[in-house]
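[retry 2/3] Alpha-L-fucosidase: previous attempt timed out, resubmitting with same input.
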Amino acid sequence: MGFLGQFFVAVISFSLFLNIAAAEETKSSESCGFPAIFNFGDSNSDTGCMSAAFYPAALPYGQTFFHEAVGRASDGRLIIDFLAKHLGLQYLSAYMDSIGTSYEQGANFGAASSTIRKQNRTFFDGGSPFSLQIQVAQFIQFKTRTAKLYKRGQGNSFPRPEDFAKAIYTFDIGQNDIAAALQRMGQENSEAVISDMVDQFSNQLIYLYSQGARTFWIHNTGPIGCLPVAMPIHNAYNYTPVDGYLDQNGCVVYQNDMAKEFNTKLNDTVVKLRALYLDASFVYVDVFSAKYELISNAKKEGFVDPSEICCGYHEGGNHFFCGDFNVTINGGQIHVGSCQDPSSHISWDGVHYTDAANGWIANRIITGSFSDPPLPITRSCLLA
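[retry 2/3] Alpha-L-fucosidase: success.
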């Protein structure tokens, strides 16, 4: 081949390279344009399921943003609310809430106190009938009925049948399973329990895949040992923990270690699913690290000490939760309402986060900086 031939080959090759690079750049910058969200989880993402199914929520829950109780375990919005807003979608209605709801852009099957594994406790014992398996079954029913409504021309308030494959499926569950395992430490093999949790979680993800789900946004579980109700300061008088019991932020080490063990196995499972189902996107989101970063830098980020609880009373082993009335200790009336400025607190009620803290965490995770693969949520449909 002569010089001119080599020259033209080089030009063509370079042009192809530029075209491929441009295509990749376009692909990496495009938004998935999710038409809907389907969420599965516990109280960290319940937007009204338990409130609709059992006793309605009451103020001061919801006071900061909604100015009324709307079934969320916070003074305002949850992480899922901020995710929906970022994606340009409406706040998710709870599947169990039949009054004045719209499911056009998705539905929320998450319910407070829910677990991955089935429970033997009722709502009145602090449990939930809505395990992950039940939530997925409710979704299947929702999808089936939605298709029938569209065939009858009655589907205006529901996702279009084609939206189910294009939607993002979000998950935030496992914290209550970890809490239950911690209560039974020494009575059962915690490693076997965690493995079973992850296996059951995986089975539900696979089942949703078989039903057409293709984009999975999976939160790991948060630092349960950093919840104020877990800290010794709120549990007993004059108790000094032994060395190594607490970390530098006052979090209970062995509780966080169990959460980390679950998270590691969950991440390993997500990696395996990603390799098995090449036409789906599985994004693992390290919410544990995002929350722990906030707790570690609370004062720097404008919050009070992370052990402080905004709503409720948790002192000297006495626990009265946010919204409790007529509470008396040693003959004295105790106030269990809200603090003056919830936006200065990370913890709303000792277990759940405030609107301000949830917003802080959501702003960190939507960028993809805590995700594997590191995809922002707007582009999480792209295959790694």
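[retry 2/3] Alpha-L-fucosidase: The first helix runs from residue 3 to 29.
[retry 2/3] clearing retry counter.
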